[in-house]
Amino acid sequence: MSIAVDPSDVAAALTDLIAVVGVEHAQHEPTALTSFRDPFSPTDSNDHRPALVISPATVEEVQEIVRLAARHRVPIWTFSQGRNNAYGGPAPVVGGSVVLNLRRMNRILDVNTDRATALVEPGVRFFDLYDHLRAEGHRLWSSAPDLGWGSIVGNALECGVGYTVHGDHASRICGMEIVLPDGELLRTGLGAMTASSAWQAHPRGYGPSHDGLFKQSSLGIVSKMGIWLMPEPECYLSGGIAVPRKEDLPVLIDAVRPLLLDGTIQNQPAIGHALFIASVMDGAPSRAEIYDGPGPVPEHVIESVAEQLGLGRWNMRFALYGNEAIVRARLRRVQAAVSHIAGVRVLEETYAGSEVHDRATSQNAQVQAGIPSLDLMKALDWYSGEGGGHLDFSVVTPLRGDSATVVHAMMDRMMAGTGLDWDPAMILSGRCMINVAQLYFHPDDVVAAHAAFAIAPDLIREARRLGFGVYRTHVELMDVAADQFDFADHALRKLNERLKDAIDPVGILAPGKQGVWPAHLRQADVTPGAETR
Amino acid sequence: MSIAVDPSDVAAALTDLIAVVGVEHAQHEPTALTSFRDPFSPTDSNDHRPALVISPATVEEVQEIVRLAARHRVPIWTFSQGRNNAYGGPAPVVGGSVVLNLRRMNRILDVNTDRATALVEPGVRFFDLYDHLRAEGHRLWSSAPDLGWGSIVGNALECGVGYTVHGDHASRICGMEIVLPDGELLRTGLGAMTASSAWQAHPRGYGPSHDGLFKQSSLGIVSKMGIWLMPEPECYLSGGIAVPRKEDLPVLIDAVRPLLLDGTIQNQPAIGHALFIASVMDGAPSRAEIYDGPGPVPEHVIESVAEQLGLGRWNMRFALYGNEAIVRARLRRVQAAVSHIAGVRVLEETYAGSEVHDRATSQNAQVQAGIPSLDLMKALDWYSGEGGGHLDFSVVTPLRGDSATVVHAMMDRMMAGTGLDWDPAMILSGRCMINVAQLYFHPDDVVAAHAAFAIAPDLIREARRLGFGVYRTHVELMDVAADQFDFADHALRKLNERLKDAIDPVGILAPGKQGVWPAHLRQADVTPGAETR
Predict the structure, then answer these.
(1) What distance lies between CA B200 and its chain's CA centroid?
(2) How far apart are CA B499 and CA B495, in angstroms?
(3) Is A472 a catalytic residue?
(4) A312-344 pLDDT, tens per residue?
(5) Neighbours of A392 (CB within 10 A)
(6) Using CA atoms, how far apart are residues A475 and A139, in angstroms rounded to an integer?
(7) Nearest residue of A to residue B232 by CA position?
(8) What is the value of pTM for the model shown?
(9) Are B443 and B41 within 8 A, CB to CB?
(10) Nearest Cβ partner of B197 from A202, A398, A481?
(11) What does residue A263 show for φ and ψ, rounded to 5 degrees?
């Protein structure tokens, strides 16, 4: 759903905005703008395309840009690296927005070895911080998500996940600097005290804490962010638990829950489907070789592929860190906890922490040590051919086996008519899990691509009926997602709108992001929230 | 600093407000109000006294009260148990406020064993939840601060600390229900979805996160709060590290930092001064027996008392949890990390997790297992005689030995002229520590009491000059504390004021809390912030 922006407004703003960053850092030709389109939207879709992309290099330029945008009343959308793929990539909710590309703001401003923290600008990628830590000889590990090309700041603000002890990136943010929509510069936590010595050390200041306001938010542009790192462990074990049967999944989840709750397993494990593991394995058969009938791969084929490739029907990876004695004691507890599952296999790769960078070659061993890669890109081509895409449906449920059963039954039922492959993955933490269903299609296959986008709102609504909320969505789905948060006559939406009006009264910043619209765009006919109001 | 409230406003509101809760739950006689005074303010002080205390029992009553207060434009102050001692107890910033006492809202609404969470009302004390978990046979441990009579909600909202793995209470909040100043009811996180199944399991919902706004805040009244618990461990070790010399402190801090950063030590250890330990020991000599000269106890006396009682000059407690193998492996790592300190002693008490409730008798072993007590009250009488009080000065510094040295040198220098005893304690987490200096006096000794309140603003300002911010203060000191957060021309204050105006436009709720004033009280002559603006 996009909202027309008056082209004359954009045109009038153009000269001013380009002057801020310089013509070499502004792109408005249609061909140049193509690379800032959502790469996975159906190729016949013109929604969510920017009118102009500008790339500031400094905080002062960002301040000037928001002031100009307010004067011209032009909507602005920000991305840090724009790798928010499956959720819209760099694309704004409102087509015709001026998009701020923050890739040039890519300085690593501080790494503190004592306290294992970093302060970075939004353009810093997981690759960049990793390389920097290695180059400078810091014995610190950063956390990375499945693909390492994204922005550390952007990922944490969108509540993305990684797989070290600091995998819940949004909760490891420590201190932000923010350009507010009126151009004021704010620092949160102890950074609000000039020359504070503990900005990245303690997550709060004095009085209310504001970091949460700027996550999945249209209230400010984060220009610096602190993040916690982990010290390189003496010993690192990248583990796996493979279970043979489809119905082993809830048993496995319930078996490992106590280990996550008590910190035996310290990172965020992920559970992957046999086909997904196959899709990124060297030498595995292709999707077409496995099954060329209609619809998704049937269960008996999945089981035979798993057996053939030596995989579990479900494959959980996890990591243990510590000195060798602690790691071995942890592992024995993991082994004991799952030993009742018939046919279970517990796998391990163990490294000295200092050697992992040179020795770890598997994606699991790498990502659980925070080593970024792009290996998982292979899955897209495997499922849908070169240039394949996906749309992610991601609900948070309690960490219980029966929650996974309910979500998967719902997905099986609702996806049946679409003909799409979909891959259920679960990212576990102590009390909840994120159930990510990747819906695969090729953007050029407009029937399949539209089928994915068409079913997604229904999935969101049906999950709500089962008691489950989404944690993140594609820009196309933000209104319907926000609509589900309906307690007390949508009190949350009303608060978000009040905050929006107070902090961004002109309503220039990321209108529609996460379903929060500025006052002038809040008419019933453009706010799909009408359906539940 | 208090601001006069028009007595006729309060009088007009009285009848309406009393009608909401019933006359038996309203107190306005001066004698009854005495128990809602700050117990440690100088006894000759009349600041910060409420005009009326009312005790609602339901969310609906709270909603009605805020609506009435807005109509009458009467300032409201809320406490949950009012045990915020050393920071003002139940007392409001603005004398003459109507105080909401939430002690009657004391239901434990949910305990979830699978995911180790609880949902409680604000009147639930640490004692209450502990007793409930025991009575119901839940093998779950809650976290408690030094004194167990406080409110779980109130303590977490004020960023209080405890000593289990969930000792940083403010960061273990998971989901809030809040009465906003206009009477609207909000649920945060996944609770914003009616019938969500994961409200206490996942700390965020969809879009911006709001929990932080309601910590140390005047933006709403928290009526329900989720909190994380820990599963009872198989094995629990309450440990101690005693070091003999004053100058061992920075060495000790730097030695344990890696253990905190990598999770070998999982809880928040505390480091106590020999005299403080003596003050709560059975059979220890009295303060007067130790030293009856002028000013605080001299160093050579401290050392001899420590030796006589078998204490370290500094005494750190810490806890290890897990199965026995993991706990022993952790302990060996702790022992190795401090073995270079001459004369160091590592102490341990080890329990089966299930036995600790019956067997642990020391305050350290109890509090690190979340067993609440009031044992530490003894310190107040020991230092200043029966009915003794204290004022706490609490700065956050990086977790570094040299930070402690700098803070203590500052304290020694600035406290010298006051003649007051003061006790430096440190609560450690991975990257920072809270340095709590308890300034002791008897409220009836008005010279000493005023000396404490007089030096406190200077301590706050001087700490800022050294790069350290306070995390919490007495109501009397909120303006000066907020003044120190000066980055970018007090951008934080400006944001807080904008949020205040948007969410509490009439300005009824807790005016002046943490230095945030509603618009009509923001005149330069009543906002001491003028000093740095």
Answers:
(1) 22
(2) 6
(3) yes
(4) 999 999 999 999 999 999 999 999 999 999 999
(5) 21
(6) 38
(7) A262
(8) 0.96
(9) yes
(10) A398
(11) 80, 10
